[in-house]
Sequence to fold (579 residues):
Amino acid sequence: MAITLSSLVTDLKGIGPSRAKAFERLGIRYVRDLLFHFPRKHEDFSSVTPIKDLQLGRPMTVRGTVKSLKDKSGFYGKRRLLRLYCDIQDETGVLHVVWFNLRFLKDKLTPGTEIYVAGTVEKSKFAPNDFSMRSPSLEFVQRDASQRIHTAAITPLYSETAGISSRFIRYQVKQLFPAIKLVPEYLPEDIIERNDLMGIQEAIESVHFPSSQEQLERAKARLQFDELFFLQLAALVRKKHLEESPAYPILVGSLDVQEYAQQLPFSLTEAQQRAIGEIAEDIGKAHPMNRLLQGDVGSGKSAVALLAAMMTLAAGKKVLYLAPTEILARQQADSFKKYLGEGQTHLLVGAMKPREKSRVISLLTGEEPVCIIGTHALLQEGVVGADIALAIIDEQHRFGVAQRKALLAIEKGYVPHLLSMTATPIPRTLNLTVYGDLEVSVLDELPPGRTPIVTRVLDIEHKDNAIIHMLEELHAGRQAYVIAPVIEDSQVLAVKSARRAYQEIQELFPGIAVGLLHGQMKSEEKEAAMNNFTEGAIQLLVATSVVEVGVNVPNATIMMIEGAERFGLAQLHQFRGRI
Fold:
């Protein structure tokens, strides 16, 4: 039976129903999937090293002769385990090797057999001056050199699953090399020549089994180019589709924008004025806006979003505001009510009573223009609306593609204008690829009076100095945060929990009002803790990452983060904005 790219993997030798199911866990069902299952990394075993020149901790290949083979069977826990101990020698020394549960090797590794072994070099437990390897790859010397794929070469390592090892994948891919000729070249010839790219067939072959590091790098460059190229194509397709979709035009003149801005108790920065002008131009069109508002924490993104909401409501249309956390949703709802009014601003979060949620959801289908600010409750099944002209997503990186689609599909027929906001810096190259379908507005300046944030990394020996500095700030009437990566102490993670930090700080600062805030608390408890901190009744707040976004307490001037290595860079960037 001829193998094609659309052949099932069960058509290949050695792959039955059981292994086919295991391959499906890796996303592999067809021959094409297997060829495009690229290695996650490569080990360079290409140089054969004499045993006396081996180096500890490095992946290396040895060619030698089997000197002796012993087996030992026993229980390891509840499992019965067969160990094969093999001594391999060359003219420079002896290498001690152990394999586990490879019974078939007992009859093949007879004394005098020439083999290659490739693995990480360790110090031998049996002879202190000798080297050893555990479970190295093995191939017999008499095999045709072109067929060696596990040793004496740059060896691919793949994502694996139970029942499917890298060794087995290497074997199957090698057998499929003739099928690579069936992969068509899908890039235009001028793009390939202009970017000095390798052909796709050569790239697939070389990324699996490169003959040199240079060939491997060229193959990876071609495949990486393809990935970015198709990401951009997909973004352009999404952009084209959006341009062909209908939206409610919100007609706002430049004088109107200035009138809305004058309703705020502060002056907009030039960057904010530029951003709101770009938004006003976009929402005046009959196809949906898709704009990303990017700016550091404290640069005034919420003020820009508020003005966009004002314009939309004034045109008699509705606004949806999606926040990643309940704390942020409540805070934004309170802030928007000051300018939009109680009647036009409503909160929708999962912790609300069913009757109250139903009342807010019913407003989406009513005739009055309203701004609904909520969490994932806005995306629940059955939520529909009419005259929804603007959707705002705060901290858009916290939501998946499916969630954003669900928000835009709440109204049938018309697609809302979309304003996404993020405080996480996004390089221009990433804008052009992943967010290539977005127009980008950047708030590249902070409002007057916003002082730069100083960040320090301290080791445990200098923690006392940080505590003293925090105490000075507290006694000066300021407030502070202590952030912990987990709620409860863990036997697995050697990090300080929020509960333990809370107890220690209460003992350390007996005259200071200390509060605790984490995600497992009830909504009323979280709201009370935040209100007390905002109003100054709590001076020091111990919290988890629930305060990552949206919490705004101007009097808080210092933050200590325990176990900072447990947080991502985006989270640490957000934490900086809380002070």
